[in-house]
């Protein structure tokens, strides 16, 4: 891991660790020694925010991560998760505090952000936005000047998301991010990503934030960055889905989309059909690069060829070869 961090520094790549600190904590709460920290004794997903020992565990985890990175490349950002916390404010410790869910949630987030501030004063804290957006009464979180929410959405249907949602986040926080998906969002047992859905998801995000203004204002609101998520399982207890090798075409395509738009285009993106956009701006470069990816006739040629052959015998790359062949047919790519 230290070698990986050093390589990232060499290539001027920033690493943003993700450490779940509220929900999705099965990796710790499934263990006997931490089971007493569960919000619900029968479910290992969420940690109890009212148990003092929960903060001890979270502090230890964050300390390990931050201390590992700091001597090599101090963290500019760290992600503390906090998404999809479905079961909380249920245990006796929480209920005796007589707090509503939003107050309890943001109180826990504040504690965790202060831990990060003490360990690494210049590190910004990222959190997923879904629990914040559940609060129907947006407020300016003046105490959370080091927190930056990441507004995530992985489908191409943006009917429930609007500029008003983004505006509310901008009112509450100094900086916000967005997050799309290039893989891991097409079914918990999917073998390959739906490349059209992944492309459409990123196009719709770009349409939403492109030259974004609210109402009649002249001010253009900025987004600090976009995170192309690539999930390998829906939860800790789920099976793996859409492994990285088969998702490389999707990653390539969506990175090309974002970099192309960053350079600027002549067309009005909000009025442009995705197929027309692909054919006009991405098709040639995508096909040229895509031809270098492994196929049935051009298999992986890394040094340990014997190892690759053994994997081929066990896992059978035939479905991957078929998928790549289909993707190489442009008409099928976005049909």
UniProtKB/TrEMBL annotation:
Keywords: Hydrolase. The keyword Electron transport does not apply. It is an enzyme of class 3 (hydrolase). One of its GO terms (biological process) is carbohydrate metabolic process. Signal peptide: none annotated. SUPFAM superfamilies: (Trans)glycosidases. It holds the Pfam family Glyco_hydro_20. It comes from the Eukaryota. The keyword Translocase does not apply. Gene3D superfamilies: Glycosidases. GO terms for molecular function: beta-N-acetylhexosaminidase activity. Belongs to the glycosyl hydrolase 20 family. This is beta-N-acetylhexosaminidase.
């Amino acid at each position: 891991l230290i070698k990986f961090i050093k390589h990232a520094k060499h290539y001027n790549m920033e690493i943003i660790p993700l450490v779940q600190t509220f929900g999705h904590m099965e990796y710790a709460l499934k263990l006997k020694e931490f089971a007493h920290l569960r919000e619900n004794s029968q479910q290992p997903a969420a940690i109890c925010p009212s148990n003092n020992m929960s903060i001890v565990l979270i502090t230890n985890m964050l300390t390990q991560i931050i201390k590992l990175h700091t001597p090599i490349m101090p963290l500019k950002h760290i992600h503390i998760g906090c998404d999809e916390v479905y079961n909380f404010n249920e245990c006796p410790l929480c209920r005796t505090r007589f707090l509503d869910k939003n107050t309890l949630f943001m109180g826990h987030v504040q504690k965790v952000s202060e831990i990060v501030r003490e360990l690494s004063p210049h590190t910004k804290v990222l959190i997923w936005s879904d629990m914040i957006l559940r609060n129907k009464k947006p407020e300016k979180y003046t105490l959370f000047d080091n927190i930056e929410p990441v507004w995530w959405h992985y489908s191409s249907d943006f009917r429930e998301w609007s500029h008003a949602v983004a505006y509310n986040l901008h009112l509450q926080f100094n900086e916000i991010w967005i997050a799309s998906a290039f893989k891991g969002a097409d079914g918990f047992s999917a073998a390959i990503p739906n490349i059209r859905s992944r492309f459409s998801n990123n196009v719709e995000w770009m349409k939403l934030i492109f030259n974004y203004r609210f109402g009649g204002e002249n001010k253009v609101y900025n987004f600090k960055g976009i995170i192309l998520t690539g999930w390998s399982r829906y939860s800790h207890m789920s099976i793996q889905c859409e492994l990285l090798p088969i998702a490389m075409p999707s990653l390539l395509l969506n990175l090309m989309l974002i970099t192309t738009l960053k350079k600027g285009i002549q067309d009005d993106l909000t009025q442009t059909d995705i197929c027309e956009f692909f054919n006009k701006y991405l098709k040639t470069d995508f096909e040229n690069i895509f031809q270098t990816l492994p196929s049935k006739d051009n298999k992986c040629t890394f040094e340990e060829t014997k190892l690759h052959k053994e994997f081929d015998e066990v896992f059978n790359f035939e479905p991957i070869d078929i998928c790549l062949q289909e993707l190489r047919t442009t008409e099928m790519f976005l049909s």
